């Protein structure tokens, strides 16, 4: 309990300090609310729109989770293929890099046009933006195996599948987890960006829609919320 308190206290104190500086700056410099609302105004906006914010968060989280799950599963399968064929890896890996370097905002409208609006469009954008870290890290883990261990498996006449699933995959787990950690964050960004373009129904709003809508209406307190 004491260790938990010690670890939690510095971030909480820093957060309180930021709130005090924020509030002081708004009051002292008389900053207009539409430019920078104070923390009390933001808290009021959160309280007034809490059900809608919770619903939007749940909807965005659903899109992000589905996108992340698909990217992890598909990325793992692609990495397995890459680890078994250098020709396929050299042929397709540059396209994976290209997909990562293209700004998602540039291709999101096309994705929505091809796949459609709503959850499926959001999931597709989230999937694409979170795919590359899984492929890159998992492929690295599957291919960078200790040569001594490979020799040991060869001496014991291990089959290719045994080497893959008993040596390469277990050895790649740390890299897979690293890719999953990066991908999970990107999937949320992808879901929000997807909501900028794909949206949902007239009664369902994700965080992306709320951000765009509150920005257009100059509801800065709601935007901060």
TrEMBL record:
Residues 53-225 form the ABC transmembrane type-1 domain. InterPro entries: MetI-like, MetI-like_sf. Its main location: membrane. The chain crosses the membrane at residues 12-36, 56-80, 92-115, 121-142. Pfam families: BPD_transp_1. GO terms for biological process: transmembrane transport. Keywords: Cell membrane, Membrane, Transmembrane, Transmembrane helix, Transport. Signal peptide: none annotated. It is a multi-pass membrane protein. It is found in: Cell membrane. One of its GO terms (cellular component) is plasma membrane. This is ABC transmembrane type-1 domain-containing protein. It comes from marine metagenome. The lineage of its organism: unclassified sequences, metagenomes, ecological metagenomes.
């Amino acid at each position: 309990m004491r260790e938990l308190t010690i670890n939690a206290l510095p971030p909480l104190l820093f957060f309180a300090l930021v709130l005090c500086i924020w509030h002081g700056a708004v009051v002292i410099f008389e900053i207009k609310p539409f430019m920078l609302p104070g923390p009390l105004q933001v808290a009021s906006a959160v309280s007034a729109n809490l059900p809608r914010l919770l619903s939007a968060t749940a909807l965005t989280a659903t899109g992000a989770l589905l996108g992340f799950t698909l990217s992890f599963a598909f990325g793992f399968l692609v990495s397995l293929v890459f680890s078994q064929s250098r020709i396929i890896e050299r042929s397709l890996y540059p396209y994976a890099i290209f997909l990562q370097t293209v700004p998602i905002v540039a291709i999101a409208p096309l994705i929505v046009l091809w796949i459609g609006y709503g959850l499926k469009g959001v999931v597709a954008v989230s999937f694409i933006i979170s795919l590359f870290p899984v492929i890159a890290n998992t492929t690295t883990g599957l291919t960078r195996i200790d040569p001594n261990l490979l020799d040991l498996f060869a001496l014991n006449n291990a089959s290719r599948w045994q080497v893959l699933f008993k040596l390469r995959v277990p050895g790649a787990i740390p890299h897979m987890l690293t890719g999953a950690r990066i991908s999970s964050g990107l999937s949320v960004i992808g879901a929000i960006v997807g909501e900028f373009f794909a949206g949902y129904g007239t009664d369902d709003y994700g965080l992306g829609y709320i951000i765009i809508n509150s920005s257009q209406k100059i509801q800065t307190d709601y935007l901060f919320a």
